[in-house]
Amino acid sequence: DQQVKQNSPSLSVQEGRISILNCDYTNSMFDYFLWYKKYPAEGPTFLISISSIKDKNEDGRFTVFLNKSAKHLSLHIVPSQPGDSAVYFCAAGSRFPGNQFYFGTGTSLTVIP
Amino acid sequence: KAGVTQTPRYLIKTRGQQVTLSCSPISGHRSVSWYQQTPGQGLQFLFEYFSETQRNKGNFPGRFSGRQFSNSRSEMNVSTLELGDSALYLCASHSGGSADTQYFGPGTRLTVL
Fold first, then answer.
1. Which residues of B touch A36 (CB under 8 A)?
2. A102: which chain B residues are within 8 Å (Cβ-Cβ)?
3. Distances from the Cα of B101 to the Cα of A52, A98, B41, B94, angstroms
4. Which H/E stretch holds residue B20?
5. Contact A43 B107 (CB under 8 A)
6. Which of A22, B48, B53, B106 would disulfide-bridge B33, Cβ 3.0–4.6 Å?
7. How would you classify the pairing of strands A86-94 and A72-77?
8. What mean pLDDT is predicted for residues A46-53?
9. What are the CA-CA distances from residue B27 to residues A75, A95, B23, B51, B61 (Å)?
10. What is the pLDDT of residue A98?
């Protein structure tokens, strides 16, 4: 049973425009959410996170929004750059106790120059 | 600081065999998590080890097992391999505290023939 879902397997965006990647989760007990970026032949790289006490977190061109009532989070990339082309995974879970996170199936982002 | 290393990077086995994968976490990190990545399934959590003890476990059959050594290095073992075990196996290193995120290794690509 997939507890974290990314319903868009792929997304194409023009360079300079906004990329919006979406993620839904089912477990209301999740209190920590992350986005990872993955290039081929490499492991996922941490991008940005948000805890359930916030609804927005920004880091440069990347902003994550959390809507707890809808159990939905999104990643906004503005402006999108060709180097952002990668697979993006969202993850949700709890850091207590330990680290057990559930990942979505990923969205492949292509930024067209 | 050296990153997470996984060995071997590629492995080919036949059905019924067993396999052992190795993960060396970032120096000073005490937590190691293992994930299986297959197309269409995203990253599925296998288990997490912290200070040589399994702290969390995902929903995988008992053929999948792991251990962690006193130097925090971890091994994952899969016995009686099945075709469906073909996947990218990723390990992630974490300090063990609540504030940090986890860092992934490049993965071991296992192919079962």
1. 104
2. 45
3. 15, 11, 22, 6
4. strand B19-24
5. yes
6. B48
7. unpaired
8. 92
9. 31, 21, 12, 13, 30
10. 67
